[in-house]
Amino acid sequence: MKKNFCLFAFFLCVSTSENVNAQKLSFDLPSNKISAFLFNYPQSDGTSRYESLKNKRWKKFSPEKRLDMLIYIQQLNSFSLVPHKASSCFIGKNIEDHFFTPDIKIANVPDGVKTTRSTDKFLIALQFTHIDPKTKKKTFVHFRVPNCGFNDKKFASSNKAVSSLNLPATSDNYFASSFQKVKDENGFSDVETSGKDKATLKKIKVHRIRTDFDKALEIKPERPWAGLSIETTQSGKILSKTIKQYILSNLVLDNKNQELNLIPKNNKNTFWCEMPWMNQTPFGREALHGLTKIRPSISHSIIYPDIFSKDTSAQATSNWGVTYYNSIACKTIYDVFGSSKTKFNNPPLWEKVKFDEGTLIVKFLFTAASFSSIDGTFSWNAHISDTGENSRSIRKVNLLQMDVALKDSSIKGSKKTNNNWMMFTYYYDATFNDTDKDFQTLPREFRRLRPEGIQSGFDKSDNIVFQDAITNQKDGMLNGPIDNFHSSCFSCHGTAGTSVGNIPGVTSEKVWVENYLNKPSFDFSHQFGIARRYYETRPQK
């Protein structure tokens, strides 16, 4: 394994350096100039140093050193027990096309290395036996290497991206001590409990998703919105309020202890569930409420401009979310995964990803940032890490946004070409107080969730943004404060189950009809796509 450290030293000693700010470092990545690996790290004088591993240089590595490089990247990226900031990945159209082509096969690495790649090409997994050079002890190792790029050639040619690392001090034991043993990955229960608050987590009941998905078949579906309309702004407001009232009346049940709100199992009268396989990698479910790490730091906000004031570090903090499915949607999850009460499907039946009429999905999005615009919002304690960090601790997160996806052809104005999906966004606004009588029993922080609007398609004409509400999207389409302003709800979710990046995603109704309609996809569900990605790259016995 010492060749790892020769390679490590090689990259530190031979790399070129440039005095640039780590937060602003960015590279153009034209598709004909492939960058495999970019990183920067701070110098003692406060400047940053960067390195890019080009395809030409990659080819010069022996198969063993290619594997070493992958190990090196992953050691700095994926282990929560290593208390340093790290974020790294490959950037390119897709990993295998650029770096494991017929003349550079990953099969050329030493015998015994197993490799798998997700169908959507965003993730590759390697698995092998590591022998400690000192103790000669064998450790079974598995890791995933993400692809930061996209398979959309036009977007890849204009995208700017950077992977940054703060490198830890080196030692001859660093790699060996960082390896984790392969264990059976359970996509239905495990959550990340490592970190400095590990002892505290042992004393409490950590989050577990329900897995009796078959019970959804016994629940009488509720559709209080059936037959309403989005044909006018006023009818859209009525639907938006109906959706909000239904969700919050089901999930906000305790006016005294906020930790008990937004937890579906506390309502015994309705059935909600969560998506399996959301517990993998450093982005996976945290231990207290099952939040998963979503977008990194917020880089642009029309809705909350004070997020960039001098007294906040919001740009560098992380964002987290949790998604719940109503009983109709849970039936689809059952069709795909089976149930703990009957039998889990192995493999899952991905071809059955098609939600039924009346499906409602709600996602609550939180930030670890604190700034004046969100004073008074609902908050939770969560076991989280910051942007670029893997080590977790228990901290407060603040509710910024509630997103809803509804599939129901009974809604007048929904579009058959888009599977009758509609997207809704609500965001916290301290100046807004919903005076509707149906909300008067709710705590104030939930009455202040302002409806932003409704989206029923990919074009701007398919958007309703309500008066006095603000969208974060650069072209005026539906987009919440935590979303990427280059995309919109529909354009992002339209890529679900495909090999296209969700930013900017599907850019128009014409693009959707010509390229995606009637072709295999995951019915606007990114979580099904993520679940398949992790399942397909799980450890192999």
Question: How is this structure best described in words?
Answer:
The protein has 541 residues and is α+β, with helices and mostly antiparallel strands. 20% of the residues lie in helices and 18% in strands. It contains 13 helices and 15 strands. Strands 8, 9, 10, 11, 12, 13, 14 and 15 form an eight-stranded antiparallel sheet that branches. A hairpin with an 8-residue loop joins β11 and β12. α1 crosses α3. The longest helix has 19 residues, at 233-251. It is globular, with a radius of gyration of 23 Å. The model is unreliable at 1-50, 76-110 and 148-182 (pLDDT under 50).
Low-confidence parts lasting 5 or more residues at pLDDT below 50?
1-50, 76-110, 148-182
The class by helix and strand makeup works out as alpha+beta
Order of helices and strands: HEEEHHHEEEHEHHHEEHEEEEHEEHHH
Q: Could you say which overall geometry the principal axes of the C-alpha atoms support? A: globular
Distance between the termini: 23 Å
Over the alpha carbons, how many angstroms does the gyration radius reach? 23 Å
Helix count equals 13
How many strands in all? 15
Helical percentage: 10-25%
